[in-house]
Amino acid sequence: MEFKKRILVTGGAGFIGSHLVRLLLEKYPEYLIVNFDKLTYAGNLENLKDIEHKSNYRFVKGDITDVEAVKNAFNEYNISDVIHLAAESHVDRSIEGPMDFVMTNVVGTVNLLQCARDHWKGGKDHIFHHVSTDEVYGSLGETGLFMETTPYDPRSPYSASKASSDHFVQAFYHTYGLPIKMSNCSNNYGSHQFPEKLIPLMINNIVNEKPLPVYGTGANIRDWLWVVDHAIAIDEIFHKGRLGESYNVGGLNEWTNLDLVHYLCDLMDKKLGRSEGASRQLITFVTDRKGHDMRYAIDASKIEKELGWKPSVTFEQGLDLTVDWYLNNQDWIDSITSGEYATYYRNMYEER
Ligand code: NAD
Ligand code: DAU
Question: Which domains does the chain possess?
Fold first, then answer.
């Protein structure tokens, strides 16, 4: 079969990438989806078990910093478009060791841009969609929202590496005319998220009646979006967004970390048949994250006005679906938390 597009999705075995791969495979049988992933600790082919049999799906195990591996994938599948998600994604790990973040997020992105440019040879009928984060804009005070025009002000090694990659993507557009698009999204939650991140970590610890580590006072604010809505936004931007443009994606859904943990505790007490207030007893205030950004909040009016995108579920609906998924997929989370990650988590927690 002649595929209409042959899209290289990097990081497709991760949290957001697996949701995007699933959406693209189901919605566009006329596209070939090539998932290029190194399978780091965060990559898990189990995330794609339900769709890996599809005839328009291919998996390539590879590292985006490896020039030959990326070139080979472009040549073998005659890649027409890229949606780039592969990254080191966890802020705490970037504080422990920034170099992996420089390698994958900066060097890996530049390598992909260079390979796309070489393969497409100035052709315009292509898209390189770079998936980025709102953290590049820095930290907000009590008021205001991040706009696409907000100056970059990254403050953690993770956000510095993502900001650098964003600048390279824009540089390839302005310097070489590479057809790029970008999206900068707020905090995602949903199924298949690695349990080092706040929501799955709390869900898993509530289930196991383990301490719930809240950094600092829990007053920091994040703007939460259901991962499926992020995947839908990427699809919209990829197909209908303007070249050279960046789109902010967010849920207008700000929560302090402590309010969110309280909400999860109460929701799970009901689902698990525990007495009211039982899980809140597990909350433990621990040493704050170094340089902890205070508040993130996205102004998503550009994507809403230009592309008609907005979140499809409320936070309450999305969290309900998410908690149910983790409760029904205990094997998925157990296989992660019983391996190497168990040692990492113990060390992290003891340090705090
Ligand atoms: P994740 O950590 O769950 O997954 C990352 C994936 O990238 C994994 O499958 C991993 O194996 C792969 N990978 C890592 N290094 C690689 C390399 N060198 N070569 C090839 N593959 C490699 O991350 P996520 O949370 O799904 O985030 C995906 C993207 O979205 C990232 O670029 C992240 O910066 C961005 N983002 C994430 C969020 C969020 O809330 N999680 C919000 C906004 C933007
Ligand atoms: O804003 C988008 C970003 O959101 C993405 O670019 C990142 O890839 C993603 O990891 C996420 O970054 P955060 O640092 O905001 O997410 P995390 O889940 O690590 O933490 C959310 C908040 O909860 C943050 O204020 C720190 C706090 N926290 C986190 C953990 C893991 C705790 O209080 N306790 C915890 O145990």
Answer: 5-188+224-249 (3.40.50.720), 190-222+254-296+313-344 (3.90.25.10)
